[in-house]
Amino acid sequence: MTLPPVGYVRPRTLAEALTALAGEGARPLAGGQTLVPALAARLIPAPRTLVDLAAVPGLDVLEGTADGGLRIGAMVRQRAAERSELVAGRAPMLAEALAEVGHPSVRHRGTVVGSVAHADPAAELPAVAVALGAVAEVAGADGRRDVAVSALVAGGPRAGEVIVALRLPAPAPGEGQAWLETAPRRFDLPVASAGARCVPGDGGPVVAGLVLGGVGPTPVDVGDAVRRLRPGSAELASALDAAAARLDPPSDARGSAQLRRHLARTLAERAIARAAERTAA
Amino acid sequence: MSMGRRIRRLEDERLVRGGARHVGDLRRPGQLEAVFVRSPHPAARIAGIDAARALAAPGVAAVLTAADLPHEPLLDSVTIPGLRKTPHPAIAAGRVRFTGEPVAIVLADTRAHAEDAAEQVVVDWRPEPFVLDPDAAQAPGAPLVHDHVPGNVLYAGDKRYGDPDGAFAAADLVVEQPLHGNRYAAAPLEGRGCLAEPAPDGRVTVWASTMGPHLLRRRLAQTTGLDEHRIRVIAPDVGGAFGLKIPAAPEEVAVVLAARAVGRPVRWVEGRREQLVAAPHAKDQRIALELAVSGDGELLAVRASLVGNAGAYSFNAASALIEPYVGAGLLPGPYTIGHVAAHVRSVLTNTAPISPYRGVGWTQPHTARELAIDRAARELGLDPAELRRRNLVRAFPHRSATGMVYDSGSYVASLDTAVSLLREADTPPPGPGVRRGIGVTTYVEPAGWGSDGALQSEWSFASHDTVRLQVDPTGGVLAAVGTPSQGQGHATTLAQIVAAELGVPVGQVEVVADDTHAVPVSTAGTRASRVATVTGGALALAARELRGRVLAVAAARLDAPVAALDLRDGHVVRDGERVLTLREVAEAAHFDPGLRARLDHPELVVTAFHDPPAAYSNGAIGAVVDVDLGTGSVAVRELAIVEDCGTRINPMIVDGQAAGAVVQGLGGALLEDIAYDDAGVPAGSSFATYLLPRITDVPEAAMAHHESPSPVTVNGVKGMGESGAIAAPAAIACAVADALGGARIDRLPLTPERVLRFAGVLA
After folding, report:
1. Topology (CATH level 3) of domain B464-610
2. pLDDT digits over B180-212, tens only?
3. Which of A72, B91, B548, B705 is deepest in the core (most CB within 10 A)?
């Protein structure tokens, strides 16, 4: 199939981009690895104008922040983040998840922020952003605001807004992270996924955070149910059972709610175990 | 000798350098691009079509509906008594019967303009009740897909061989094995497509992505009323087909009609979504199989109900019976099972029609039988390989219970080889919660359907070939055949046969197969693993006769007795010495009138007709899998592929065919399923939802060959290339069942959800 008629602009400044996005039927384009195939298949109504963010200066910057975290610009390609030593050191869960996103040719074009903004509840990057406590810097005609990704994924950026960058906080000292996902074929959109964080505790690692993907309308943060519990413990097992039972996953052609609940339970335990292995003694 | 050599494919340099020319690469003066308006409903009446806005859209030349394109509908050609016919219009008139059925064709200057305009065609749909499942379709009160087919039953019949009831009564063990087989898409790299160019005098030239140029020509003649010789069908490079491109596509007929209606060349290049939704699908049998076994492990009898989900039309591929009816004939498989009962049924539903796909008819009955054998072995406490070994055919020729005459083979040796190739069968799985399983299946593959082979499947099918072989004035050899390649390497293998028989280098032989105006008629075309034996056999016979003529010319030229001469490596040889080149012989034959006058047959052109007896390939496929009970994932760790296709023409191509088919079989075992949703729309409508195996899903495969030349074919050659598609699903399903402690598997593909249900992990 071919693209339907659609306008295209390539602004040179953020201000120009925001002006273009304020127009009726405008949509930002940041890699286009989801949007463009959907348009070509004519599965979604064509926007009047695609506002390509690729030429806006500064949006492709991936940098460390002074507090030991990361700042990922809107046009940072997934492949660049995947290969970044900064990401490997400061957000290893993101690096691990990126290696499972599509395939290299997709990752060379797709952007980290574009995927987070699209906020597919089964996709890797929105769940990882929630799991790592990412904050989105959102710009619009009314100025800038910071929004936690956990809040953003429920509604996405408003019309006319763009995510300029994501900020990821520094991991805790000695923190171990792990990402696991499953699908009938590797590299596909996961049917279910889990991102786990563990930190050193008295006498060994304890759980610091857990986010499950593909089991709700957004990534589901179940960290409160498992925080400070010991990997491998009976307490953790029953907490995971209870958390899995509370999930309300969708049923569709890719898997029933029952399957997704089982997968999430399996992956949660395995991701926590892996994160614990990576936690400093 | 050029036979049996792993020579590189002669066509590959052109193909890998981007030199291929597909329908999508063609451009004729004044060409229009066609896009079809298709039904979004599985069943609906068409109250009206308003094309006014589409006609006003940029670049649009015409919007044509059934009313604009009168034609005779397509019909299946099978004459089995009791099979009902379902006339199939190229463009639906008044009523649609499956999602994706075309109702209008939009012609525009570019593809994009045609797609934009197609969205502007307003169809007044009146959706009607529909039925997707063959069981539901037979229930009282079910919507009728065709008004003249009561109960939606296209065909129902019973086949009995031997005394199945007696055998079942005497059995110590009866294993029941139901199987709900998946609906596949052939999914070739290149979709369907064609370009039709009309001439002012009514002739038409059609470039088509087809497996059978003559078959397409015949269907075009039947639907348009033109004589066949006024229609020229050219198959340019074709990027895979696997059976999908055997039948004429209704869209191809529509494009020809549209081109003649507007008097301009019209091209249609199928899109992927269009193909997955609207092109014919494959397989989709519902099987209930029973296996009767004696206490000491003799497979006595098999009884099966084979219900084919025909889709909305009995397709012109052959008919809807290509699945269940053909499948019944192979129920005994490679075993000495003496008694067979089969109930065969084909049922219409509001789904895309069924057409051939690699392993036509055989895949799903084979899978059911092999799962049943593994379960019988478990019941009897026998190694499944040992149970098979006790029942494999050992003496040849063997007449199977269903009347197939297995000509030669290495059934037991192939099984033993496959077992020996699996190295990880007894090693521990990689972690807790992971179970390892092994499956080994033995198969026989009807391999080289001449008309005799077709008859042994109780199928009427004109499967002969005529070929023309000539030495041109410069000494080059031109082989003209009606069986083009869609990737199988005919330019190489057919040249190897000619080169070996004639006595010339392979590179001196050019194979032409693409043009009905240039090659002799092949009514069947490329399909059913028939080219090696039927086309190849005809070429061998032609080459033997042509060799005699070449030597006769040489003898006349040299004033020597023919018996003193030989043709080797492109040279006439006498007493071990090269005395003439083939070029010198050819020049003399064409340009020396004195010489010609002394010869009965100075022309270096031979045609040969061939319709060989049936031949059967065999082999075994083994799989070792790891099943993760936490995720339901199945990882295929190892595959063993053992193939016996008699004399191999080019072992490298045999390896490639065997591997490719196994990968498609792996897809069928684990991933591929069209699965309609509740609204009657295929869920597998893109490659994001119709899951083909990728290289990361495919393990290294160990491959081995046995070679049992056929005593009934030219040079002992047998067809091959479908075995993996027939048998790999069974090998993998048996391995998964083994990993799950003998769980009963009754549905494919083995998605994580199904695996966890078969394992009892999910309720």
Report:
1. Aldehyde Oxidoreductase; domain 4 (3.30.365)
2. 999 999 999 999 999 999 999 999 999 999 999
3. A72
Laid out side by side, the sheet with B571-574 consists of B565-568, B571-574, B577-581
Closest CA to B604 of B559, B557, B560: B557
Domain B282-453+613-758 adopts which CATH fold?
Aldehyde Oxidoreductase; domain 4 (3.30.365)
- The position carrying tokens 């593809």 is B111
B618 strand-pairing partners: B444, B644
Distance from CA of B756 to the nearest CA of A (A): 8
Cβ-Cβ contacts under 8 Å, B671 against chain A: 184-185
Cβ of B679 under 8 Å from any chain A Cβ?
Answer: no
Q: Which residue of B has its CA nearest to A1?
A: B271
User: Is the ipTM beyond the 0.90 threshold?
Assistant: yes
B70 preceded by a cis bond (ω within 30 of 0) = no
Q: Can B282-453+613-758 and B464-610 be said to share one CATH topology? A: yes
Q: B631 in contact with A at a CB cutoff of 8 Å?
A: yes
Contact A4/B116, CB-based, under 8 Å? yes
In DSSP notation, B540-606 reads HHHHHHHHHHHHHHHHHHHT--GGGEEEETTEEEETTEEEEEHHHHHHHHHH-HHHHHT-S----EE
d(CA B338, CA B330) in angstroms, rounded, equals 12
Q: Which residue of B has its CA nearest to A251?
A: B753
Average pLDDT rounded to a whole number, residues B102-122:
97
Give the CATH architecture of domain B12-20+32-128+192-238+245-278: Alpha-Beta Complex (3.90)
Instruction: Mark yes or no for CB contact B753/A3 under 8 Å.
Output: no
CA distance A182 to B752: 9
Asked if the model's pLDDT at residue A210 lies above 90, the reply is yes
CB atoms within 10 A of CB A150: 18
Residue type, B575: D
Of B115, B632, B694, nearest to A2 by CB-CB distance is: B115
Note the pTM of the prediction, 2 decimals: 0.97
**pLDDT tens-place string over residues B675-685:** 999 999 999 89
Radius of gyration for chain A, computed over Cα atoms and rounded to the nearest angstrom: 19
Closest CB from B115, B689, B752 relative to A253: B689
| CB–CB contact B116 A253 (8 Å) | no
Residue A28 CA to residue A138 CA, distance in Å, equals: 13
- Closest-CA distance of chain B to residue A237, Å: 14
pLDDT tens digits along B267-283: 999 999 999 999 999 99
pLDDT per position as a tens digit, B525-576: 999 999 999 999 999 999 999 999 999 999 999 999 999 999 999 999 999 9
Domain ranges in chain B? 12-20+32-128+192-238+245-278, 282-453+613-758, 464-610
Contact A262 B697 (CB under 8 A): no
Domains of chain A: 7-52 (3.30.43.10), 62-168 (3.30.465.10), 176-276 (3.30.390.50)
Query: Among the residues of A47-182, which ranges form H helices?
Result: 78-83, 85-90, 92-98, 104-109, 112-118, 124-131, 149-155
DSSP conformational letter for A4: P
Closest CA to A230 of A198, A193, A258, A184: A198
Using CB atoms, pick whichever of B115, B119, B677 lies closest to residue A253.
B677
- Give the confidence band of B417 by pLDDT, cuts at 50, 70, 90: very high
**Alpha helices (H) in B19-72, listed in sequence order:** 52-56
Cβ within 8 Å, pair A263-B752: yes
In a mutagenesis test of the B interface, which of A39, A100, A106, A185 is the best target, namely the one with the most B β-carbons within 10 Å? A185
Which pLDDT value is given to residue A109?
A: 97
The DSSP secondary structure of B275-297, one letter per residue, reads HHHHS-BEE-EEEEEEEEE-TTS
